[in-house]
Known about the structure:
Elements: H1 4-9, H2 30-43, H3 52-65, H4 98-110, H5 112-119, H6 133-147, H7 158-169, H8 173-192, H9 196-203
Amino acid sequence: MVGPRAWIGGLFNRSANRRNERFHDYHLTPPQEERLQRLQERLQTPFDESRPDHQAALRDLWRIAFPNVVLNGMISEQWKDMGWQGPNPSTDFRGCGFISLENLLFLAKNYPASFQRLLFKQGGNRATWEYPFAVAGINVSFMLIKMLDLFSEKPRCLPGMNFVRILGEDEAAFDVLYCVAFEMMDAQWLAMHASYMEFNDDTEK
């Protein structure tokens, strides 16, 4: 398997990633419970193109990515330059929601050099046809949520349990892990000499 499922799957041991009832009987500390609840509330928030704050977040991402380029509108062919599938980015959020945009913004604001390198595919022996940056970013969010079992009341897999422990110490743990996962995906892409067509083939399965 070439695409994002395989790349991000390599972050965790697959056998440990299986849901298991014996992982359900553990107790959360008050900070862990509170922060997990706030994170799960973020997961439940869909991207709403009619909301001014969601539009503003998308514009912020554009300004960071292309500070010297004026965006013509929320629906514009320009969005394709960032790796959205079409002129309206809102259609790409259906699989994940607003948190995937928050993850991209966290990467852009906290690790700007990494953001620019990933966006513009700088460094390494790049393919002629590269993966779409924004769509790949949404896929990273989706796969992390799934593998950490974050839609359960409490994660019932070992990676999810370990993540909750880290979350109890750092509320930004999911966003930081997202940045690490995106970097690892890109490194694996380079190592496998993958192509845009291979990315598309796998994401459609």
